[in-house]
Write a structure and sequence with these properties.
CATH topology of the largest domain in chain A: MetI-like fold
Radius of gyration of chain B: 18 Å
Number of strands of chain A: 0
Distance between the termini of chain A: 27 Å
Number of strands of chain B: 9
Helix content of chain A: over 70%
Largest sheet of chain B: 6 strands, mixed
Number of helices of chain A: 10
Order of helices and strands of chain B: EEEHEEHHHHEHEHEEH
CATH superfamily of the largest domain in chain A: MetI-like
CATH architecture of the largest domain in chain A: Orthogonal Bundle
Structural class of chain B: alpha/beta
CATH class of the largest domain in chain A: Mainly Alpha
Oligomer: heterodimer
Strand order of the largest sheet of chain B: 5-6-7-3-8-9
Helix content of chain B: 25-40%
Mean pLDDT of chain B: 88
Chain lengths: 255, 269
């Protein structure tokens, strides 16, 4: 019961902090008499949601598709490549240094190139999200698969365990916490990637909408767009956390 | 030549049966490039079925290497290694149980499932293995912890689970590499007593590697002393202390004589 109460207090404090920020924002705008185009109040921001021309729903769907599509592809490619590396030491020695170098490329700088290659739209923006999200997943997964105590290996070998048994019973479950730590970093990056993609070239999406309303100085709509992008990020992050909660034993989690 | 004559003391029980483990002149050299490192030279000793033999020596004396040779993980360069006898057949693929300094429990598995790992690797019938795992957890004093995760157990309890895991496939030989080296002194003494009890109840042959001299004398029915630089086998003698052993024995004159003998061999006197 005490533990339950502690949790309740902890969560309440978190909610209170959010509400306080909203209040401080409201008071700042009200008492400071800040013009709406510089900083709208929370209420003005909320009202922006009801301007029908902005197509909030469809634009949000477009951005969500880019984020989730790019992210899922990054997860698939990142984990599969890392798996390949564990099966072939040569491949890993060949590819990993290269990938570390490629990871150094600021992916945002690839934006104009991606437009040249794929034009603009949902697909190139997904590629942007993908290119920025794939590396953390790949690198943490590869690391997780490598982290196996040599003595555990001895134990399996002393019983003539197969390579597959080693992988399925020890290596992969052992790597899961690392995979999730990469997935969490990647979730945040994928959102940034998709939005930068939309800034650079797009005809739909929340990033695109932001550029449109910027011209008319509709700051409340820009605030709303940022809020929705943040919500999409929180949704993705939340799904990852939920999966981790069910798949990874508490003590094994890597933060 | 019988291996029983090796070492400075005559071995009292020249068993009528063949020894379970027979090592004669075992030498192992590690090569890396042009460098050669002698890990063990001329190790010769026998282990009778059901014996608990302690290998004691400083780091670098080759005791862990010797254990790996017994586990079939390393080859050796010279000499004879024979495990098993006509009466006690030994299948190297399934008759070894190993315990290391770290418990090496899988964090994502409950204790019972951790204990079952060797049974899974060997493809043993699961229902029977589960039953046995439960019995073994009771034997090592972990009844009631079957459904817990490793992080919920203390270091000593985790090591108990590791011992149960080493026994689950009913191997004939248990190899222990400083299994209590990471535990605090009190827990270690307690685990020594527990190990002796488990050894008696399970009747397994155990080879126990340690750098603890008093631990070796307390546990071993026989002690093999190895020295480092160069790695060689220095002595092999029986510990003539009655069973069950009690902590009180550590204060006895005879116990002191055994430890002094080892200290002398290791040049620490």
């Amino acid at each position: 019961m005490d533990r339950f109460n502690n949790k309740l207090v902890q969560y309440s404090l978190g909610v209170i902090a959010h509400l306080l920020l909203l209040l401080a924002w409201y008071l700042f705008v009200r008492l400071g008499d800040v013009p709406k185009f510089v900083m709208p109040s929370p209420i003005d921001t909320w009202k922006a949601l009801f301007v029908p021309d902005y197509g909030w729903w469809s634009n949000t769907l477009v951005t969500a598709t880019e984020i989730f599509g790019g992210y899922l592809l990054a997860l698939l490619v990142g984990v599969l490549l890392a798996l390949l590396f564990t099966w072939s030491k040569t491949l890993e020695s060949l590819m990993l240094p290269l990938l570390v170098t490629l990871n150094m490329i600021p992916k945002v700088a690839l934006g104009p190139l991606i437009i040249v290659w794929f034009k603009y739209g949902v697909f190139p923006n997904s590629m942007m999200a993908f290119s920025i999200a794939v590396f953390p997943i790949l690198l943490t997964t590869a690391r997780g698969l490598r982290e196996i105590e040599p003595e555990l290996l001895d134990l399996v070998r002393s019983l003539r365990g197969s390579r597959w048994q080693l992988f399925a019973k020890i290596q992969f479950p052992g790597a899961l916490p690392y995979i999730f730590s990469g997935m969490k970093v990647a979730a945040i990056l994928a959102v940034a990637g998709a939005i930068v993609g939309e800034f650079l070239g797009s005809d739909r999406g929340l990033g695109y909408l932001m550029l449109q309303v910027q011209v008319t100085l509709d700051t409340p709509a820009m605030f709303m767009a940022v809020a929705l992008i943040t919500l999409l990020g929180m949704l993705l992050y939340g799904i990852v956390m939920l999966l981790e909660y069910f798949l990874v034993v508490k003590d094994a989690r890597v933060s | 030549m019988s291996a029983a004559t090796i070492g400075s003391s005559p071995v009292a029980s020249i068993a009528a049966s063949e020894p379970f483990i027979h090592l004669a002149g075992v030498t192992k050299v590690y090569r890396s490039g042009r460098k050669e490192h002698l890990a063990i030279s001329d190790a010769s000793f026998d282990v009778q079925p059901g014996e608990l033999v302690a290998l004691v020596g400083p780091s670098g004396c080759g005791k862990s290497t010797l254990l790996k040779i017994l586990a079939g993980l390393h080859g050796h360069d010279q000499g004879t290694v024979r495990i098993g006898s006509a009466l006690h057949a030994f299948d190297p693929a399934r008759d070894v149980g190993m315990v290391f300094q770290a418990p090496l429990l899988l964090k994502w598995r409950r204790i019972l499932d951790n204990v079952l790992l060797p049974a899974e690797l060997l493809g043993l019938p699961m229902a029977a293995a589960k039953q046995r795992a439960r019995e073994l957890l009771a034997l090592v004093g972990l009844a009631g912890s079957e459904e817990k995760y490793p992080y919920e157990l203390s270091g000593g309890m985790q090591q108990r689970a590791a011992i149960a895991r080493a026994l689950v496939h009913d191997p004939k030989l248990i190899l222990m590499d400083e299994p209590f080296g990471a535990l605090d002194a009190l827990t270690r003494e307690k685990m020594n007593l527990e190990l002796l009890r488990i050894w008696k109840e399970s009747g397994k042959t155990i080879v126990f590697v340690t750098h603890g001299i008093s631990e070796a004398v307390f546990l071993g029915s026989r002690v093999v002393v190895l020295t480092a630089g160069p790695a060689r086998m220095a002595d092999n003698f029986e510990i003539d202390l009655p069973h069950p052993r009690t902590l009180d024995m550590k204060t006895q004159e005879r116990f002191g004589a055994y430890t002094r003998r080892i200290y002398r061999l290791l040049g620490m006197e």
